Amino acid sequence: MRLDHVRRLSGPNVYLARPVAIARLDLQGLTGHETTDHPGFAERLVDALPGLRTHHCSAGRPGGLLAAMARGTYFGHVTEHVTLELSGLIGREVFFGRTVRAGGPSEYDVILECPRDEPSGSAVVEMLIALALRTVTGALAGPAPDVSADLARIRAAHEGERLGVSTAALARAARRRDVPVRRVGALNLLRLGYGRHRRTVWAAMTDGTSAIGMEVAGDKRLAHRVLADAGVPVPEGRVAASPAEALAVLRDIGGPVVVKPLSGHQGEGVHIELTEPAEVVAAFASAAGDEGEVLVESYIPGRDYRVLVVGGRVVAAAELTAACVTGDGSSTVAALVARVNADPARGTGHDRPLTRLALGPTELGLLARQGHGPASVPADGERVWLRRNANLSTGGTSRDVTDETHPEVAELCVRAAATVGMDVCGIDLRLPDIASPPPADRGAAGILEVNAAPGLRMHLAPHEGVGRDVAGDIIDLMYPAGTPSRVPIVSVTGTNGKTTTVRMIAHMLELDGRRTGMTSTEGVYVGGRLVHLSDASGPRSAEMVLGDRSVDAAVLETARGGIVRRGLGYDRADVAVVTNVTRDHLGMDDTETVDDLAEIKALVAEEVRPGGHLVLNAADPATARLAERPVVRERAPELRYFAPSADAPVLAGHLRDGGVGYYAEHGWLTEAHGDRRTRVLPVEDIAGSFGGHAAHVVADALAAVAAVRALDVPVDVVARALRTFDPHTRNPGRGCVYQVGENPVLVDYAHNPAAVAAVGALVARRWRGGGVAAVTLPGDRSDELVGETARALAATFGRVVVYEDEDLRGRRSGEMTRLIVQGLREARPDVRAHPAGDLKGAVASALDIAAPGEPVLLLYEKLQPVLELLETLGAEPVVPESPAPSDAVPSEAVPSEAGGRSSSTVTDSSASTTIPSSQ
């Protein structure tokens, strides 16, 4: 078997609402082989990986995989399960897997769940799959190979890139509160929320944390001064810039003292309870570092505590115990350390609730002062200290004492946090007992440090006592109860009309006063301005908009390619729109039928928030059927259907049941809710609809109206937006007419059978006949689809100039021209097909062929070269003539008459007279 490639879908996808990786396997010589064709294979594999015995597989119970291998199953499926088992062995707990046939007869896709916050560039899943392949092929030949060394290497890679304990807890707490979470790269930096409600948090430091407070907390000398000036008790001490100065402080304040770096963290370089000059000199050398200075302060006896203050209140407190072991009378210190480190809760760094004990120079020195070494055997019950500073990062443990904390201690800690200016901080203090008021005697209690970005693990999972949801407290500080974390999201998918529909929706929302972020095939727009030029209909562009803190609403064109290759760029939409599902992109990404396309686009319908809104084309059976999908039904969205007329059976039935729908009736765009009707705008007033001749533009308008009405955009704003939706400025490249000499040139992006037929119908209605077409089609479509599109073109155009785009998309030069001409002639033997070398030659030929005043249809792949060419030809944009805007706007909706004919009334806005809708 061979691993061809791995791709990752980071957002909700057609397989799972969580991230997955898709590995393309070539079974090569194992193609068609089943496990039963290789006696002893299953037994050897399970001997190497006993955990496979518990795998459920499709049986839904432990032992399902064993039963499948006994019956006979393919090796792609076996590789899937081995990869999941190996993933669990390194602590990477994922459970979903699926194997599907893909590409050629020997190719399979293995779909594997990935941890939600695993970096998108992680190589861990590929390493696991490669190891699974080696394990499976090894078990075919004999005993499966020992994977322990490989697993250790992969485990290290996984541990090194996953979120730290504190950040992971914050991510979980945010998701429990329905706050969107996105990890930034491989950092412990989280982006929370969407749009104007977006916040960021880095470990326990929020984007509201004071920069000045951080600076003060990070400088121990300054922090002590600020606290002392506020009357907060702190140890007596001062800065020493040399060993001699450190000894002078020892003489002045008396021992014992503490020596620590000015800006240290996690207990590094801290030396406690020093009384001898030699100890102070040695501590200075250890703690001074590059700064050349240390803080020497009096040692406060008592217990070590960490109190966490969030938003001006104490949310947790822990008593800390320094790293130590307890003798049993027979084990050496080294053996006792090894026994403690066997606890799975201990790890290296900050990836586990506790840190492994060490026997380094600092620990060995302290052991020697106690009369011990690694080989000595402490007495039964004897506590042997490995560290004096009670930091978790050096192996210490914590005991929750939140409920024991005396109110006066809590008040002291809150005062300290406020004095330094921190929204979230950890207060380190020593005092006899946290359950009692702080003693007033000088040196009997004091705050040792104010920690910015404090670690949370001692409170989340204390060694003793109950864990506290301190991550939730931080999220609640950032998003108090009732504070939104999201902006409205409208996601639009379909085969045709996506770009026009999202542009209409964005224009409507902007006129409603909402600063809107929009993604489309032409780029990312914020507030109506282009901010990123690209084909921006995928998840990265969606993330760009949702990460913009100026955005009040997001309108996302969600194309097939982005869904298939990376998943969605959001977790769920408030409004999902599916314009239609027709033949396009067939032959790409293993998509062979319209049903395959519908399965992909259904994801947008399924990933709508519970109780949200789903806008579907009632006139398109494949689209209308999406409402019947089980996942859609689980979300229970409000269905909003649209159709050219109320006669569409699905729409008519929906309205009879009291639903909401949109259609054209008596020349008006109409909103219906059960038996009530509200007129929105005369169809002929829709800008870019050519007075209503462009039926596909009217359909796009209906979809857009349905979407924004779900977001409570007023009808008069909707009408004004549609009247002012000038195609040249708001919908470039879609239905735009330019005058070139005596000929109108219609520029459009139609590139599949349905779209070409719609544009052809527009030309026939608007110009009362055909014209000349200059066309190119995308080369990554199947031969069959190219031919079908060409045949649709021939239904309107008898004269066609064919050219090829600069990007052949894998085709040979001249191949697309041959296919298009062949399709044209199959449908219309008398067609006059004229090959042209490029865009410029095609336009020149089409204009030469066209009679004066005759329209020329120009289909393109890239808009910018078209615009540049038209400019050189002196083309002038033509605004399609429309009737004068009607003054009539709806004032109220009333029940319709029997038979479905509207009897709603509209009111003249200037005279307030009622006009019967039947006129």
From TrEMBL:
EC number(s) given by UniProt: 6.3.2.29, 6.3.2.30
SUPFAM superfamilies: Glutathione synthetase ATP-binding domain-like, MurD-like peptide ligases, catalytic domain, MurD-like peptide ligases, peptide-binding domain
Biased composition (Low complexity): 902-919
Enzymatic reactions: [L-4-(L-arginin-2-N-yl)aspartate](n)-L-aspartate + L-arginine + ATP = [L-4-(L-arginin-2-N-yl)aspartate](n+1) + ADP + phosphate + H(+); [L-4-(L-arginin-2-N-yl)aspartate](n) + L-aspartate + ATP = [L-4-(L-arginin-2-N-yl)aspartate](n)-L-aspartate + ADP + phosphate + H(+)
Domain ATP-grasp: start-end pairs: 224-479
Entry keywords, A to Z: ATP-binding, Ligase, Nucleotide-binding
Matching InterPro entries: ATP-grasp, ATP-grasp_RimK-type, Cya_phycin_syn, Cyanophycin_syn_N, Folylpolyglutamate_synth_CS, Mur-like_cat_sf, Mur_ligase_C, Mur_ligase_C_dom_sf
Region (Disordered) residue spans: 877-919
Top-level lineage group: Bacteria
Gene Ontology molecular functions: ATP binding; cyanophycin synthetase activity (L-arginine-adding); cyanophycin synthetase activity (L-aspartate-adding); metal ion binding; tetrahydrofolylpolyglutamate synthase activity
Gene3D superfamilies: ATP-grasp fold, B domain (3.30.470.20), Mur ligase, C-terminal domain (3.90.190.20), Mur-like, catalytic domain (3.40.1190.10)
Subunit text: Homodimer.
UniProt family annotation: In the C-terminal section; belongs to the MurCDEF family.
Function field: Catalyzes the ATP-dependent polymerization of arginine and aspartate to multi-L-arginyl-poly-L-aspartic acid (cyanophycin; a water-insoluble reserve polymer).
Name recorded for this polypeptide: Cyanophycin synthetase
Gene assigned in the entry: cphA
